[in-house]
Design brief:
mainly beta, 3 domains, about 280 residues, four-stranded antiparallel beta sheet, Immunoglobulin-like
Length: about 280
C-alpha cells in the first residue's frame, strides 16, 4: 500500500505526491529498479514472473501509461540487478542469470534497441537546444559547455527542461567554437548505476571579412563579404547590448557579398550586427 491505495509491486506518484491511480501495471514479484526512455517507456528489472497480468521473467517494459509493451519480452532466467540504457538505445543488463533473451549469457549481456534513439544538439546564436527522443535514455539534469580547442571546456550552465528535450538561453559563443551537452542518468539497484550521455557539435558559422574593401555603408545599407563558396543562406541579427539578438534578415541567400538595410539603424542606442549561417 502507498498513499492509502493498494498497489502491486510498482506505483507512480503525481507531482503533488498523491498516487497516480491510472497507473497500475500489477507486478508479481520484487522489482529492483526502473529506467526511463525519452519516449516515456519504462524498463523494469528485478525478480518477478508477471507484469500487467502477462508472463515476464525478471525483465519487462511498460508504456508511458503503465500498460504492457507487448513487443518487448527478452526474459532472463534469474534476477536482474542492474540495467543501463546506452546513448544509441541498446540495453546493458546485469544479474544472476545464465540465459538472456533465449541465449546463453552469464551474468551480463546487452540487448539491441527496439527503435531509433534520436537526438539533436543545435545553437541558433543565442539559445542551445538539445532534443532527445525514441529509445534514448532519459536524463534527470543536463549541463552545457563550450570549447575553442576540444580539450579545455568552460561551463555555460545547466539546461532547463522543455517538451522533447532541454534548453539553455542567453548564450553568446565565439565563432568556430564547440558545444558539449551532457545528460546525467541514475539507475540500477540502490541507484548504483550512474553515468551520462554526451553530445558534441560545432555550429555552422559564416565568416565576416572586414578588411577587403567591401564592408561599410553602401546605398543606405551595410555590406558584408562572407567566406565560403557557392550560394549559402545567412542570417543577419541586430543587438544593442551584444547579448540579446533579433533577426533582421533570415535565410537570405548570397554568393559572396550581401547587403541589407535596417529600419532601426538611426535609433539610439547604437545597434550591433552579426552574420551567421542558420
Amino acid at each position: 500500500m502507498i498513499g492509502g491505495h493498494w498497489v502491486t509491486g510498482i506505483a507512480r506518484l503525481n507531482v503533488d505526491g498523491s498516487v497516480d491511480t491510472k497507473f497500475s501495471p500489477r507486478l508479481e514479484g520484487t522489482p529492483v529498479s526502473i529506467s526511463l526512455q525519452t519516449d516515456g517507456k519504462i524498463l523494469v528489472q528485478g525478480c518477478f514472473f508477471s507484469l500487467c497480468g502477462q508472463i515476464r521473467k525478471n525483465l519487462g517494459r511498460l508504456n508511458a501509461d503503465g500498460t504492457l509493451d507487448s513487443g518487448f519480452n527478452p526474459g532472463a532466467n534469474a534476477t536482474t540487478y542492474s540495467l543501463t540504457l546506452e546513448p544509441d538505445g541498446r540495453i546493458l543488463v546485469g544479474g544472476d542469470f545464465t540465459m538472456l533473451a533465449g541465449h546463453p549469457c552469464n551474468y551480463i549481456g546487452r540487448l539491441n534497441n527496439t527503435g531509433p534513439a534520436t537526438q539533436n544538439l543545435a545553437y541558433d546564436g543565442s539559445t542551445i537546444t538539445w532534443l532527445r527522443g525514441g529509445t534514448s535514455p532519459e536524463v534527470w539534469r543536463t549541463t552545457f559547455e563550450q570549447s575553442t580547442d576540444g580539450v579545455n571546456w568552460t561551463s555555460l550552465g545547466a539546461g532547463t527542461r522543455i517538451p522533447g528535450g532541454w534548453q539553455l538561453p542567453g548564450v553568446v559563443l565565439p565563432p568556430g567554437g564547440l558545444i558539449r551537452a551532457r545528460g546525467h542518468i541514475t539507475s540500477g539497484y540502490h541507484n548504483a548505476s550512474v553515468w551520462f550521455a554526451e553530445t558534441i557539435t560545432q555550429p555552422p558559422w559564416a565568416a565576416i571579412v572586414t578588411r577587403d574593401g567591401g564592408f561599410g555603408v553602401v546605398s543606405n545599407g551595410f555590406g558584408f563579404n562572407i567566406g565560403g563558396s557557392g550560394t549559402q543562406a545567412v542570417v543577419v541579427e541586430a543587438s544593442t547590448n551584444l547579448s540579446q539578438w533579433s533577426p533582421v534578415f533570415t535565410n537570405a541567400f548570397t554568393n559572396g557579398s550581401f547587403y541589407f538595410s535596417d529600419s532601426q539603424w538611426t535609433n539610439a542606442p547604437a545597434r550591433f550586427y552579426r552574420l551567421r549561417s542558420p
